[in-house]
Amino acid sequence: MKSVDFDKMAEGLRNWGRWGAEDQRGTLNHIDPAALCRAAAEVKQGKMFALGLNFDENGPQFGGFRFNPMKYMTAMDQMNSPEFPRSRFNDDVIHMPLQCATQWDALSHVHYDDHFYNGFSIHEHLSLAGATRCGVENMAKPGVASRGVLLDITKLVGVDILPGDFEIKPDHLNQACEAQGVTVEKGDIVVVRTGQIGKFTRGSREEFYNGQPGCHHTCAEWLYEKNAAAIAADNVAVEGINAETYGDEMMLPMHQLCLRDMGMPFGEMFDLDALAADCAADGQYTFMLVAPPLAITRAVGSPINPIAMK
Ligand code: UVW
């Protein structure tokens, strides 16, 4: 069954053609010089927070097509030249799914009705070689940096970690803005805290996947109205992955509405706990967020180590 409501909502926030027929950066186009300067002005205290998980065999994945990184040495204690035997080097290689830990979903990560963001046909632009439109390299050049606004929904609700079936609705986002005294402006990256990552960093991958609080798909409309550049969260999929479907037709509807229709990248599995503790202590919930993906040609996502600076 085709959902009329879903299609109506999708049409209302579709940004196809807004930045030109060949655009592959979507809402990152909202990051204009004014947004970047506003971001830089948030660095007032000289504090820095890394929001990325470590990439290693102890990551959040169980295996299957998404497994944890496998890394090994390809050169150890080697000489560059026998003429300089004291000078040695080491090299290594990593085999990992690009989606295995802290990551950006590129605009080519999901699609429906055979089209990516901006109307690019998957029949022309998706193959085993990757996505020849909307690949993550388009996010990497000139990069992803803007003002980050942390919306701490755990603090709003008064818990350490939201219940596994908790759905964050636009009202929660508005209430968090009000409680924290922040306004989301054009080009900001909205960073939503559910607390869920703590189940992994202080517990286990089993606990992490046991319930996943997250955004309700109506948050897509809120982000559209705010002209946000991107959204990131500390759960596995930004939206809740438990029961969230759109009727019997669309799985992960917020992914489709944001990535495919609006052109908004998703940042997933951001570790926000240390940043959130600091924001609660000093009352500054805005920061400069520097989070460029790797420029992996035709990739539908990229691992990242986002840095927040205050
Ligand atoms: C999907 O699996 C579609 O979503 P994600 O990797 O973004 O959570």
What number is the mean pLDDT? 96
The portion of residues assigned to helices is: 25-40%
CATH topology of the largest domain: Glucose Oxidase, domain 1
Q: Would you identify the CATH H-level superfamily of the largest domain?
A: Putative cyclase
Q: What is the count of β-strands?
A: 17
- Write down the CATH class of the largest domain: Alpha Beta
Class by alpha and beta content: alpha/beta
Count of discrete alpha- or pi-helical segments spanning 4 or more residues = 11
CATH architecture of the largest domain: 3-Layer(bba) Sandwich
Q: How do the strands of the widest beta sheet line up side by side?
A: 1-17-15-7-9-11-14-4-16
Percent of residues in β-strands:
15-25%
Written as H for each helix and E for each strand, in order along the chain, the element string is HHEEEEHEEHEHEHEHHEHEEEHEHEEE
- Rg is 20 Å
Q: For the report, how would you describe the main beta sheet?
A: 9 strands, mixed
Identify the bound ligands: acetylphosphate
Assembly category: single chain
What is the first-to-last residue Cα distance? 48 Å
How would the global form be characterised?
Answer: globular
Q: How many structural domains does the protein architecture include?
A: 2
Q: Spans with pLDDT under 50 lasting ≥5 residues? A: none
Q: What's this model, at a glance?
A:
The protein is of the alpha/beta class.
